[in-house]
Amino acid sequence: MTKSTSRVHPAGDVAVQMQVKRRRLRVATLAAGFSLFALYLAWHAWHDPQSQHQDELPITQAIAQDASSDQAVAVAGPDLVKRGEYLARAGDCVACHTADKSRPYAGGLPIATPFGTIYTPNITPDPDTGIGQWSDAEFLRAMHEGIGKSGERLYPAFPYVEYTRVTDQDVLAIRAYLNTLAPVHYTPPRNDLKFPFNQRWLMTFWNLVNFTEGRFVPDPKQSAELNRGAYLVLGLAHCEECHTPRNFMQGLKSSDRLSGAVQAGWHAFNITPDKNSGIGNWSDDELVSYLSTGVAPGRANAAGPMAEVVTDSTQYLNDEDLHAIVAYLRSVPPVSGGEARPRDQWGKPADDVTALRGQTITSVNGAQLFIANCATCHNWTGQGVGASAPGAYPSLVHNSVAGASDANNLAMVILHGVNRTTKQADVLMPAFGDQLTDDQVAAITNYVTRQFGNPQSTVTVDQIAKLRAQQQ
């Protein structure tokens, strides 16, 4: 039996090896060239002061100057300015562009991202450090395309992904309002981003995957109310920025739109019409009440970033816009998060205060800590004080924070408190982060979820430590 073999001629071996070497050399050359180009851009951006952008210059002394508000109003017209103020509130511009409440819209607020910290720019009409020398076309380009005055790519911490849907007229109305603000001479801190994410030109590739430029187009098959709600939710109010999960590039994951996400330790809940995981069992009046006052009696009380949204933005929306938002949220596809029942349908009153009488507590005890720190306002039964009156101390029974499938928001409320100011009431819960240790916060959190909420939702001491470390 003869064994047959196939053999390449030695000359063929040499030719193949040479081709492989040439291919590897080309790839190495391209990689080296790209690396040198990136390093050159980094060196150029660092050494050329002309290339440093407004949000990347050294901090200067903040000096509020006299505003030329009367002239700006005269040029734009009072009705346009009033409309712009309303739209700026709908877009919650003040929240991100204010680090110091004594100088609103002057920027400097740190925004933590997985790639480093971004500081928001000054958008007062100061000519040197703000947008006083921007043309309307440049302002439109920033809002619609994410491109700054000097042609630099803006980072998507600025939600141009949603603002691109806002009409030219509404953008220019916002600009007219901003022109009437007191100019503040202040340059925010320079962004602190890791290489290569500090290279703005890389946003070109991010945009290819995560950004579609274009204005909102109403759906002729839907009502004017629903179209208005879509325009607000998907555009100016940019609800997806907090309530939609993100992909590995930190772009919005459109397949799970509005199904909830975690931001800086806070869980922005599912706001699709799923009856268990979302808002499907809320009435229209309850949703409107929550947006306008921060309270849906018997269901939820806004805290953390959502309390800020209510304080700075949604409480100022008119009734038509609030109902339009609700109508649109009713229309989106429901997304199930796997919850067995709604967050606000858990819990029962406690009677631990009688059981604890005369007992010697020898360890960290959640019930004892609750009675000592929380019962004064929430009652030792957990049923609150004041029922549904404005400024009432909310019940923890049938409370969406206590009944959530994760205890993040409950722990964050204990650590950081609640501060929500509306036309109806000033709501303040003190922060206990400086008074309680991580194990004490964990003990209270787990007691509240076990007694008043979802007993399967627990936290560890290590999780509390991580939440405490989150930049707020």
UniProtKB/TrEMBL annotation:
<feature type="binding site" description="axial binding residue">
    <location>
        <position position="97"/>
    </location>
    <ligand>
        <name>heme c 1</name>
    </ligand>
</feature>
<protein>
    <submittedName>
        <fullName>Cytochrome c, mono-and diheme variants</fullName>
    </submittedName>
</protein>
<dbReference type="Pfam" id="PF00034">
    <property type="entry name" value="Cytochrom_C"/>
</dbReference>
<dbReference type="InterPro" id="IPR009056">
    <property type="entry name" value="Cyt_c-like_dom"/>
</dbReference>
<dbReference type="GO" id="GO:0020037">
    <property type="term" value="F:heme binding"/>
</dbReference>
<keyword id="KW-0732">Signal</keyword>
<keyword id="KW-0479">Metal-binding</keyword>
<dbReference type="GO" id="GO:0005506">
    <property type="term" value="F:iron ion binding"/>
</dbReference>
<keyword id="KW-0408">Iron</keyword>
<keyword id="KW-0249">Electron transport</keyword>
<dbReference type="GO" id="GO:0016614">
    <property type="term" value="F:oxidoreductase activity, acting on CH-OH group of donors"/>
</dbReference>
<feature type="binding site" description="covalent">
    <location>
        <position position="374"/>
    </location>
    <ligand>
        <name>heme c 3</name>
    </ligand>
</feature>
<feature type="binding site" description="axial binding residue">
    <location>
        <position position="243"/>
    </location>
    <ligand>
        <name>heme c 2</name>
    </ligand>
</feature>
<dbReference type="GO" id="GO:0005886">
    <property type="term" value="C:plasma membrane"/>
</dbReference>
<feature type="binding site" description="covalent">
    <location>
        <position position="239"/>
    </location>
    <ligand>
        <name>heme c 2</name>
    </ligand>
</feature>
<dbReference type="InterPro" id="IPR014353">
    <property type="entry name" value="Membr-bd_ADH_cyt_c"/>
</dbReference>
<feature type="domain" description="Cytochrome c">
    <location>
        <begin position="79"/>
        <end position="182"/>
    </location>
</feature>
<feature type="domain" description="Cytochrome c">
    <location>
        <begin position="361"/>
        <end position="452"/>
    </location>
</feature>
<feature type="binding site" description="covalent">
    <location>
        <position position="96"/>
    </location>
    <ligand>
        <name>heme c 1</name>
    </ligand>
</feature>
<keyword id="KW-0349">Heme</keyword>
<keyword id="KW-0472">Membrane</keyword>
<feature type="binding site" description="covalent">
    <location>
        <position position="242"/>
    </location>
    <ligand>
        <name>heme c 2</name>
    </ligand>
</feature>
<feature type="domain" description="Cytochrome c">
    <location>
        <begin position="224"/>
        <end position="333"/>
    </location>
</feature>
<feature type="transmembrane region" description="Helical">
    <location>
        <begin position="27"/>
        <end position="46"/>
    </location>
</feature>
<dbReference type="InterPro" id="IPR051459">
    <property type="entry name" value="Cytochrome_c-type_DH"/>
</dbReference>
<feature type="binding site" description="axial binding residue">
    <location>
        <position position="378"/>
    </location>
    <ligand>
        <name>heme c 3</name>
    </ligand>
</feature>
<keyword id="KW-0813">Transport</keyword>
<feature type="binding site" description="covalent">
    <location>
        <position position="377"/>
    </location>
    <ligand>
        <name>heme c 3</name>
    </ligand>
</feature>
<keyword id="KW-1003">Cell membrane</keyword>
<dbReference type="GO" id="GO:0009055">
    <property type="term" value="F:electron transfer activity"/>
</dbReference>
<dbReference type="InterPro" id="IPR008168">
    <property type="entry name" value="Cyt_C_IC"/>
</dbReference>
<keyword id="KW-1133">Transmembrane helix</keyword>
<feature type="binding site" description="covalent">
    <location>
        <position position="93"/>
    </location>
    <ligand>
        <name>heme c 1</name>
    </ligand>
</feature>
<dbReference type="InterPro" id="IPR036909">
    <property type="entry name" value="Cyt_c-like_dom_sf"/>
</dbReference>
<keyword id="KW-0812">Transmembrane</keyword>
<keyword id="KW-0677">Repeat</keyword>
